[in-house]
Design brief:
Number of strands: 6
Helix content: under 10%
Strand order of the largest sheet: 3-2-4-5
Shape: globular
Mean pLDDT: 83
Amino acid sequence: SGHGFGDTNANCAEFCDHQHAFTLNDASTHTKTHPEAGSLMGCAEQVVDGTVPNQAGTWIYGRGGWCPGMEVQPWVVDITDDVTVGAENEISYLGLMDGEIWQPDSTGANVRMQSYIVYYE
Protein backbone atom coordinates (compact mmCIF):
# COMPACT_ATOMS: atom_id res chain seq x y z
CA SER A 1 0.00 0.00 0.00
CA GLY A 2 1.10 3.56 -0.55
CA HIS A 3 1.38 6.11 2.25
CA GLY A 4 2.21 9.78 2.24
CA PHE A 5 2.50 12.13 -0.66
CA GLY A 6 5.10 14.74 0.16
CA ASP A 7 5.27 17.81 -2.00
CA THR A 8 5.00 16.26 -5.46
CA ASN A 9 2.27 17.29 -7.88
CA ALA A 10 1.27 13.64 -8.26
CA ASN A 11 0.60 13.26 -4.50
CA CYS A 12 2.48 9.96 -4.50
CA ALA A 13 2.51 7.33 -3.15
CA GLU A 14 -0.79 7.27 -1.27
CA PHE A 15 -2.97 8.69 -4.03
CA CYS A 16 -1.20 7.21 -7.06
CA ASP A 17 -1.71 4.08 -9.10
CA HIS A 18 1.56 2.38 -8.31
CA GLN A 19 2.09 -0.98 -9.96
CA HIS A 20 3.88 -4.12 -8.84
CA ALA A 21 5.22 -6.30 -11.66
CA PHE A 22 6.40 -9.87 -11.04
CA THR A 23 8.03 -11.92 -13.79
CA LEU A 24 8.87 -15.60 -13.49
CA ASN A 25 11.56 -17.09 -15.74
CA ASP A 26 11.49 -14.10 -18.10
CA ALA A 27 8.10 -15.33 -19.31
CA SER A 28 4.76 -14.13 -18.02
CA THR A 29 4.55 -10.85 -16.13
CA HIS A 30 1.82 -10.46 -13.54
CA THR A 31 1.08 -6.85 -12.59
CA LYS A 32 -0.98 -5.53 -9.68
CA THR A 33 -2.42 -2.08 -10.28
CA HIS A 34 -4.53 0.35 -8.23
CA PRO A 35 -6.72 2.18 -10.77
CA GLU A 36 -8.99 3.63 -8.05
CA ALA A 37 -6.05 5.64 -6.69
CA GLY A 38 -6.40 9.36 -7.21
CA SER A 39 -10.11 9.23 -7.94
CA LEU A 40 -12.21 11.82 -6.13
CA MET A 41 -14.63 9.33 -4.53
CA GLY A 42 -12.56 6.11 -4.79
CA CYS A 43 -12.80 5.15 -1.10
CA ALA A 44 -16.25 6.63 -0.52
CA GLU A 45 -17.55 4.36 -3.29
CA GLN A 46 -16.13 1.38 -1.39
CA VAL A 47 -18.06 1.89 1.86
CA VAL A 48 -20.17 -1.18 1.00
CA ASP A 49 -16.88 -3.14 0.80
CA GLY A 50 -15.67 -2.07 4.26
CA THR A 51 -14.29 1.46 4.07
CA VAL A 52 -15.17 3.21 7.33
CA PRO A 53 -17.24 6.26 6.29
CA ASN A 54 -17.40 9.84 7.55
CA GLN A 55 -13.86 10.17 8.81
CA ALA A 56 -12.28 13.58 8.85
CA GLY A 57 -9.88 14.70 6.16
CA THR A 58 -9.29 12.84 2.92
CA TRP A 59 -11.04 9.55 3.64
CA ILE A 60 -13.16 9.80 0.46
CA TYR A 61 -10.27 9.85 -2.02
CA GLY A 62 -9.11 6.70 -3.81
CA ARG A 63 -5.78 5.35 -2.62
CA GLY A 64 -3.11 2.95 -3.84
CA GLY A 65 -4.10 -0.39 -2.37
CA TRP A 66 -6.17 0.55 0.69
CA CYS A 67 -9.01 2.66 2.08
CA PRO A 68 -9.43 3.83 5.71
CA GLY A 69 -10.70 1.01 7.91
CA MET A 70 -11.09 -1.46 5.07
CA GLU A 71 -9.46 -4.89 5.17
CA VAL A 72 -6.87 -5.21 2.42
CA GLN A 73 -7.60 -8.33 0.40
CA PRO A 74 -4.61 -10.33 -0.85
CA TRP A 75 -3.91 -10.37 -4.56
CA VAL A 76 -3.48 -14.01 -5.57
CA VAL A 77 -1.96 -15.19 -8.84
CA ASP A 78 -1.52 -18.84 -9.83
CA ILE A 79 1.98 -19.12 -11.31
CA THR A 80 1.93 -22.90 -11.74
CA ASP A 81 2.12 -22.69 -15.54
CA ASP A 82 5.12 -20.34 -15.31
CA VAL A 83 7.25 -22.75 -13.23
CA THR A 84 9.79 -25.02 -14.88
CA VAL A 85 9.60 -28.22 -12.83
CA GLY A 86 12.98 -29.73 -11.96
CA ALA A 87 14.92 -26.59 -12.82
CA GLU A 88 15.95 -23.39 -11.10
CA ASN A 89 13.24 -20.73 -11.41
CA GLU A 90 13.85 -17.01 -11.14
CA ILE A 91 11.34 -14.37 -10.15
CA SER A 92 11.93 -10.66 -10.63
CA TYR A 93 10.08 -7.66 -9.25
CA LEU A 94 9.68 -4.06 -10.35
CA GLY A 95 7.92 -1.29 -8.46
CA LEU A 96 6.39 1.08 -11.01
CA MET A 97 4.60 4.41 -11.14
CA ASP A 98 2.78 5.20 -14.37
CA GLY A 99 4.63 2.28 -15.98
CA GLU A 100 8.08 3.64 -15.09
CA ILE A 101 10.44 2.40 -12.37
CA TRP A 102 9.40 4.25 -9.22
CA GLN A 103 11.99 6.48 -7.60
CA PRO A 104 10.91 7.71 -4.16
CA ASP A 105 11.71 11.32 -3.45
CA SER A 106 12.94 12.87 -0.21
CA THR A 107 9.46 13.78 1.05
CA GLY A 108 8.85 10.53 2.94
CA ALA A 109 6.33 9.02 0.53
CA ASN A 110 6.68 5.25 0.40
CA VAL A 111 5.14 2.11 -1.00
CA ARG A 112 5.11 -0.98 1.20
CA MET A 113 4.73 -4.32 -0.49
CA GLN A 114 4.91 -7.83 0.94
CA SER A 115 4.94 -10.89 -1.25
CA TYR A 116 4.89 -14.64 -0.70
CA ILE A 117 5.18 -17.68 -2.92
CA VAL A 118 3.24 -20.64 -1.57
CA TYR A 119 3.86 -24.10 -2.97
CA TYR A 120 3.05 -27.66 -2.07
CA GLU A 121 3.94 -31.09 -3.29
